[in-house]
Amino acid sequence: MLRPKYSRLEKNIRYYFIDMGFATWLRDPDASRLVTGKSARIMAPEQKINRPYDPFLVDVYQLGMVIMQDIIPINEALDCLKPLAEEMVRSEPSARPALTKAQQSMNTLDSERRGYILSGDWYRK
């Protein structure tokens, strides 16, 4: 059986959450950021009304839902993410944090919890 050389606690591991079920490629950064479509696993409120929406704010909503539905329930130690996730799933898109602000909040939480994380209890159920 193959085993990893290092555990996740011995090396800095990055996890990426990508494509929550509906990806759009915006080739021109100066073009309108509004898109349409309704084929995502987790649909934001603005996707349900079939009007153009900002896909980046939908990404924030979808990641917030993943945190609330898939991550926090399996690990009580990650309950500290709940206030951020609640901001991310606000029904009004303009009330959600930008992805960069959400990332800064997660980084702040990570640095505050680093001692607990390294204790090994952070990732256990």
From TrEMBL:
<dbReference type="InterPro" id="IPR011009">
    <property type="entry name" value="Kinase-like_dom_sf"/>
</dbReference>
<protein>
    <recommendedName>
        <fullName>Protein kinase domain-containing protein</fullName>
    </recommendedName>
</protein>
<feature type="domain" description="Protein kinase">
    <location>
        <begin position="1"/>
        <end position="125"/>
    </location>
</feature>
<dbReference type="GO" id="GO:0005524">
    <property type="term" value="F:ATP binding"/>
</dbReference>
<dbReference type="GO" id="GO:0004672">
    <property type="term" value="F:protein kinase activity"/>
</dbReference>
<dbReference type="InterPro" id="IPR000719">
    <property type="entry name" value="Prot_kinase_dom"/>
</dbReference>
